[in-house]
Specification:
The complex is a heterodimer of chains A (281) and B (296).
Chain A: H1 12-39, H2 55-62, H3 64-97, H4 103-115, H5 118-140, H6 148-173, H7 176-184, H8 189-218, H9 221-226, H10 234-244, H11 248-272, H12 275-279
Helix pairs in contact in A: 1-11, 2-11, 3-6, 3-8, 3-10, 4-6, 6-8, 7-8, 8-11
Chain B: H1 8-51, E1 55-56, E2 62-63, H2 70-74, H3 78-110, H4 114-129, H5 132-143, H6 148-155, H7 167-191, H8 196-203, H9 208-236, H10 240-245, H11 253-262, H12 267-290
Helix pairs in contact in B: 3-7, 3-9, 4-7, 5-7, 7-9, 8-9, 9-12, 11-12
Classes of the chains: A mainly alpha (281), B mainly alpha (296).
């Protein structure tokens, strides 16, 4: 509602601000647009435009390694999203709605995975799995391998916290008297949760789940440390390719990943269009 | 029914029991993720901490028997100090550039009509949610020898520009990657600001600049702090950006740590480096909470 009164329309300051904004938008989008544009280029060389074609998309679908990595990515993202959404929501409820012993320590522990740098998290997971697999080898004579399992476990470890923070923000905005009213009307705890709390926090839960999904689909650093020789994810596979050089195939895969991200943004925006959440802000 | 006869003793007991039951329920609700985070986060953290005091055998194996501070002493070697200094300078430069670019940008968005504002905000959210690796890769295409920047320069009769694998390339990548992290908190702070205070300042004959300096800027400071921390922390530990856009001479802390585990096979030293980076981050976060910006 509030337009900066200090700025009359079309003042020089205003023009400078507008100019800066369009430059920033160009900076944001030019690389993305260029990448998508060149993914439709029928040439072995990325920078030289010859003619439009879907050649590299065909190549992508025929590439077994890309398809295997894609499948792994989707499986891991699905597992880690479901598990971390359930655990993260429970965490948010426990922290926001209850007082219990050890809560403050727990509160700190939940925030740490968000703050900790990717690289440190990656090192932690690598040493942990290496150490515990060595231990299992000694105890049982066999140990699991690095792969989909280790990647999923690591993704859940950082996703719980992100889901918890998002859901907690939603719970914090909630009017506790609604839950009290349900209890006053003889709803038991489970009914109160099912009929009142859950529907109200659902946009937050869905937002947290989408964030977890995105983080899992995008992660490179942690995943590259805990992936095995036979099992890697799409971003880690692409990362390996990129380090060796630029190819049009990477452009095609990247475009697919970009489109997937944008679909997720769209989904999260639709979820946030809940009129309730607009009012409270 | 003796409602009137209130047995306070029983009431107190009941209340205490109810409280205890609620406390138990909260604990049970938190228990699964509590256990998960202890096993898959706290224990790994302790392992890295322990490893940072271990020593490395000549074959690259980690020996846990003799604890020592050798890895921490190496943090002060000139090579490490150089890498740490470069990382710090790049992280600060990234933060400052992001702030200078984002502030007027966020200000512009926050002062639009609500409809325009929402559209512009969506346009900021899209790159924010897009795959970081892919966005960084795009700059590798742009800055490469046969990329558009170089081609443009050649078209005008210039030399082919080789920005890729240099420090400026890494800086561009970092700014591009983390810019949305600065824009969003700044926008949040400016959008919820009480603009009537700026009007009041203008009514009291403050010129535009004074009103900004004395009112808008102090009120938006929580956003500035939050955005700076959100950019500084990942920029300091960045691994993907230097790995894709940097070269041998632009090693940053992130890829240096990774190389200790994958190439050099010096796990104790890599662990000590990780702990050091984490200490810096925690310090930054404490600054963040102290500054009262936690509501953003």
């Amino acid at each position: 509602m509030s337009i900066a009164s200090g700025l009359r329309p079309k003042s020089p300051t205003e023009r400078l601000l507008a100019g800066n904004s369009w430059l920033v938008f160009a900076f944001f989008y030019a690389p993305i647009v260029l990448l998508i544009f060149f993914s439709f280029n029928d040439n072995n060389n990325v920078g030289i435009w010859t003619e439009p074609s879907l050649r590299w998309y065909g190549e992508m679908f025929r590439n077994d390694e890309v398809m295997r990595a894609l499948r792994n990515s989707l499986v891991i993202a699905a597992i880690s999203t479901v598990v971390s959404t359930i655990l993260g929501t429970a965490t948010a409820l426990a922290l926001e709605r209850f007082r219990f012993r050890g809560q403050r320590v727990y509160d700190g522990l939940v925030y740490l995975p968000i703050i900790i740098p990717d690289v440190t998290m990656a090192v932690m997971m690598l040493l942990f799995f290496a150490q515990s697999f060595r231990l299992m080898e000694g105890l049982f004579g066999f140990a699991p391998e690095f792969g989909v399992g280790t990647i999923s476990l690591s993704h859940i470890a950082f996703n719980i916290s992100f889901v918890a923070v998002v859901v907690r923000a939603r719970l914090g905005q909630l009017d506790p008297s609604l839950e009290e009213a349900a209890a006053d009307l003889y709803a038991d705890r489970w009914q109160t949760f099912r009929r009142v709390t859950l529907p109200l926090i659902l946009p937050g839960v869905a937002g947290g789940a989408l964030l977890a999904l995105t983080l899992s689909l995008d992660d490179v650093v942690v995943t590259s440390f805990v992936s095995g020789p036979g099992a890697t994810t799409l971003p880690v596979y692409v990362f390996g390719l990129v380090r060796r050089g630029v190819t049009p195939l990477i452009n095609a895969v990247s475009t697919v990943m970009l489109v997937a991200s944008m679909l997720l943004v769209g989904a999260s925006l639709v979820l946030q269009r809940n009129p309730k959440s607009n009012d409270s802000e | 029914m003796s409602i009137d006869v209130r047995d306070t003793q029983t009431e107190v007991h009941l209340e205490a029991a109810a409280e205890k039951a609620a406390s138990r329920r909260g604990f049970l609700l938190a228990l699964p993720s509590w256990l998960y985070l202890i096993l898959f986060f706290a224990v790994p953290l302790v392992i890295v901490f322990v490893y940072s005091f271990a020593s490395r055998s000549s074959t690259g194996l980690t020996r846990l028997e003799r604890w020592n501070l050798e890895s921490y002493r190496r943090l002060f070697d000139s090579l490490v100090a150089e890498i740490a200094f470069r990382s710090l300078v790049l992280a600060i430069a990234t933060t400052v550039i992001c702030l200078i670019v984002s502030y007027p940008f966020a200000y512009y968005i926050a002062t639009r009509r609500p409809l325009v504002r929402n559209v512009l905000l969506v346009l900021v959210m899209i790159p924010f949610w897009s795959n970081f690796l892919v966005r960084t890769y795009a700059w590798r295409v742009i800055l490469g020898t046969d990329g558009p920047v170089s081609q443009l320069s050649q078209a005008f009769g210039g030399e082919p520009i080789r920005l890729l694998f240099t420090v400026p390339a890494v800086l561009i990548g970092l700014v591009y990657g983390f810019l949305p992290f600065m824009v969003l908190p700044l926008y949040a702070a400016l959008e919820r600001m009480d603009w009537s205070l700026v009007e009041a300042a203008r009514d009291l004959y403050a010129d535009g600049w004074t009103a900004f300096r004395k009112v808008t800027w102090p009120l938006s400071r929580p956003g500035v702090v939050a955005g700076s921390i959100l950019v500084f922390i990942p920029a300091l530990g960045a691994y993907v950006t230097p790995a894709i856009l940097g070269g041998a001479k632009t090693t940053l802390l992130g890829d240096y740590i990774v190389s200790q585990f994958l190439a050099a096979r010096n796990q104790p030293f890599g662990s000590a480096l990780s702990m050091a980076v984490m200490a810096v981050m925690l310090a930054a976060v404490i600054v963040y909470f102290r500054s009262g910006a936690r509501n953003l």
